[in-house]
Automatic annotation (TrEMBL), chains A, B:
Enzyme Commission numbers on file: 6.1.1.22
Protein's organism: Wandonia haliotis
Gene3D superfamilies: Bira Bifunctional Protein, Domain 2, Nucleic acid-binding proteins
Subcellular location: Cytoplasm
Protein name: Asparagine--tRNA ligase
Length: 479, 479
């Protein structure tokens, strides 16, 4: 008999049919009602046994966390909250779970702190919250691949180990196979990197963008979706040392095309989750509502999780220049009442308090801010006519701040070379990048989405360590 | 006017319609015929200009590699090999390409060696061969995500930086931010790894399998698709230091389920490429045919590239045990004529010559060999009743050898602990892995596919460096 997954059974069944289900016990009540979960859905199937017919020693082994195979008949359920249940005919205990041991884990059916769950990241998959989070994380990944494939983009695997650090996005991790204690030295007494595995000093990538541009300027449209790294000592709820990033890059796109693509992309993801993750989303929505009740009124979210996703899908993103943003902020009540902590004037970077004001108070919807002062942004962003600003864009989301950063790229070789000089990037380091501007250079644009930030947004989780299976942070590299 | 991609135009057009296309010049003949490519397909669109109406200086700038925007009318083509062409009305040169400089690159339209193309990996995307390879690489990626998503698997991002090396799959790259020349030492004079970023010594992952098992034993079915690393000094056409791997893991699956899944999976990929990559496949098929003509008759492939894909789709994979394989080999002509270089007896590992005999001569189709002697295989493979063999499986493909390796996993805690001891794996290193056998352990199985090996198979490329955008190999980490 073939196993039926619980998700399939709940969505399509016939009363009276015989089924075989396998899964893990979430609870066992009154020696009679087993709640079984197999990971295919957040919902359990209730399996009912007539305990009179069962061996007492076997009954004792039906405990939270144990794995069972159950054969039985699908019948209407008289209990609340479920349409059907299984009348158990045969029951095999595939794997026991000692209740005293289970009591020391996150499987114990009671409320656990997220911190405690993180310490048992290997078992937290078996909880409702993390089952939902990681099923949704999968859905977001798939939505991304689907979005780009449907539009004729090619997935480009840019390198993880890289000899280039031109992107300058942050501190890097060194990769080496040299003897760490006694590395070979050259005549100057410096480490002889030519002896290392790659014959030079190499690092973990901070971005695949430069390589993605190489692909886009031949294949037309590409995207990356891979791990990126920052060796920054940031112990916050928004930073990881290892995280996943999506970086599309499109030949012939200008900044407006780039904004259109970004908006369509983010809406697609939210819409996909709303359509395909109903049960998990409903669970996380309720969870957040309950969490919110613990908070003072003025700290609560205005919208529920599901409402926030619907809100992104339904609303056009506001598009304003940095210059306009500064004007709006200078005209704002908090500015006039001196409630902003940081200064607001042209040439200073926007702080979180300013972004939140614009997104959450002023426009009350996602905002794209464009054309930032050149000095804030990377060397490859296209210089505008005014000579002061670049064709950059940041997408700001309610509650989460910057979720996407992008730009039109500088396609003019002479301007780009000058920018390299200004940013102290030796041309011989990125000769290959400059080559694309030598041979049929074209306007092109792209952006980067921090994958975990997006998963935070669609799950409502507020700590980034709770949306990646095994988080890597300073002094923490478990499992 | 919106740009039309060349792939769209060629698949759907109306004669007389006005279009805007943008792309790069592949060739310009008789001051009249421009072959333009935009990466959306291997096919070019021919754009025809009446040179009498064009400025001579502009004509001179229409050179191989230059980027153009062309507006014109779609008309029937009188030339061979194309149904339509564009009568040019407006032409913008978006980016020049100096012919003398282009002549020094792989864009020069002539036959280049693959070695030379590799040195210009940043420009080889613009050639027909590599355009085709990387479009197909994308298609294979997408086919994989689609296969698993359609079957209710969840994509699990297992960690890249890891403190565990229990998998024992090979030499690892060290990741560190310590001062490489003067690392901090502890009282014993050894490097004080507690001072490093993660507070301990960490490496780049060689496999996500152990973590994937954690996911599968809660979510039911998961798969990984991420980069993996080997710091091995293997300068061969089949090895990379950085490559991508797919590792599905399924709770409740035994070895037979695992074989069924693998076979269905590999057939799906081949079928997807046959269906979705017709033009690119046809090009690579012709390319291989021409290559084959240069070879002596007895070294040529029996089947063309396309035939090999169809062959995988059409044939059931042969399934035999290692013990049976040894018997077949001992009964074979080459064994009796002492033509095998390596010995054939129970307890020695199968060599490439043996695998090729079984796949290419004896069965003439893909072969799955199962139940290898335990000593050849990793600690986590399930011990068979005979006490000598494990529930392992290797899938062998014609021309390429082992493409998939997998097994049913050892789910019995006592057996697994004994295996850890046998393999010198300290239990405290993988307490989290052992935990899954403590709490509702169930039979489960999985396998690993080297992504680049699969891309080699479906493109016919014979060097693994030619199927990944920027290969990382010993002493080579460019771009």
């Amino acid at each position: 008999m073939t196993r039926t997954k619980i998700a399939s059974l709940l969505s399509q069944y016939e009363l009276g049919q015989e089924v075989l289900v396998k899964g893990w016990v979430r609870s066992f009540r009154n020696n009679q009602f087993i709640q079984l979960n197999d990971g295919s859905t957040i919902k359990n199937i209730q399996a009912v046994i007539e305990f009179e017919n069962w061996n007492e020693n076997e009954l004792k082994r039906i405990t939270t966390g144990a794995a069972l195979a159950i054969k039985g008949t699908v019948v209407e359920s008289t209990g609340a909250g479920q349409a059907i249940e299984i009348q158990v005919k045969e029951l095999d205990i595939l794997g026991d779970a000692n209740p005293e041991e289970v009591a020391k884990t996150v499987m114990q059916p009671k409320r656990h702190s997220l911190e405690y769950l993180r310490e048992q990241a290997h078992l937290r998959f078996r909880t409702n919250v993390f089952g939902a989070v990681f099923r949704i994380r999968h859905a977001v990944s798939y939505a991304i691949h689907q979005f780009f494939n449907d539009r004729g983009f090619y997935y480009l695997h840019t390198p993880i180990i890289t000899g280039s650090d031109a992107e300058g996005a942050g501190e890097m991790f060194r990769v080496s196979t040299l003897d760490p204690k006694n590395p070979p030295l050259n005549e100057q007494g410096e480490i002889d990197w030519s002896e290392d595995f790659f014959g030079k000093q190499v690092n973990l990538t901070v971005s695949g963008q430069l390589e993605a541009e190489l692909g886009a300027l031949a294949l037309g449209q590409v995207y990356t979706f891979g791990p990126t790294f920052r060796a920054e000592n940031s112990n916050t709820a928004r930073h990881l040392a290892e995280f996943w990033m999506i970086e599309p890059e499109v030949a012939f796109n200008d900044l407006e095309d780039n904004m259109n693509l970004t908006e369509e992309f983010l809406k697609h993801i939210c819409n996909y989750v709303l359509t395909n993750c109903k049960d998990d989303l409903e669970f996380l929505n309720e969870r957040e509502k309950n969490e919110q009740k613990q908070k003072p009124q003025n700290e609560r979210n205005e919208l529920t999780l599901a409402e926030r996703l619907e809100f992104v899908v339904a609303n056009s993103f506001e598009r304003i220049t940095y210059t306009k943003a500064i004007e709006l902020l200078q005209d704002s009540k908090p500015f006039k009442k001196k409630q902003f902590k940081y200064p607001v004037e042209w040439g200073t970077d926007l702080q979180s308090e300013h972004e939140r004001y614009l997104v959450e108070k002023h426009f009350k919807k996602p905002v794209i801010i464009t054309d930032y002062p050149a000095s804030f942004k990377a060397f490859y962003m296209r210089q505008n006519e005014d000579g002061k600003t670049v064709a950059a864009m940041d997408v700001l989301f309610p509650g989460i701040g910057e979720i996407v950063g992008g730009s039109q790229r500088e396609e003019r070789l002479d301007v780009l070379k000058k920018k390299c000089a200004d940013f102290n990037i030796p041309e011989e380091e990125i000769w290959w990048y400059l080559d694309t501007r030598r041979f049929g250079s074209v306007p092109h644009s792209g952006f980067g989405l921090g994958f975990e930030r997006m998963v935070m947004f669609v799950t409502g989780m507020t700590n980034i360590r709770d949306v990646i299976p095994f988080p890597r942070t300073p002094k923490n590299c478990e499992f």
